[in-house]
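Sample intake sheet
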Amino acid sequence: MRFRLDPKAPEPLSEQLVQRIEDAIAQGSLGCGEKLPSAEELARLLGIHRLTVLASYKELARRGRVSSHPKRGTYIIQDAIEVRRDVIKSLITQAIKRGKTMGLTPREIEEEFSTAQWNMDFARELGRFQNWDLFAPASKH
């Protein structure tokens, strides 16, 4: 399990780790039922404190991504599709809240989402026309 965390990033290391694990689940690198490394092991691999890993596992459990069992370990309990949906819903909710704090009206926010949908539809059609698959999973090089 290889994750890169950036100690200089504005997000705390624990949140970065949560995001990396969620991404790995969403991409299918970590599957439902798979056991995560112990907090001690992952902390050693990443060069971070064990409590940081424990905080990440606790947040993942709160989000319903993992289940921790004393003496047995921490296991993935959501599949990729569920995680993808949850992450997209969260991003949409954040965008709506941000729009409200910027003073946009509900109608203006709706117009922005309509424009985004049109752009996605256009990109999808352009990709088909030029034989691109813009919405395929990113290749792993």
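Comment: The CA atoms of residues 3 and 46 lie 7 Å apart. Strands lie at 35-36, 66-69, 73-76.
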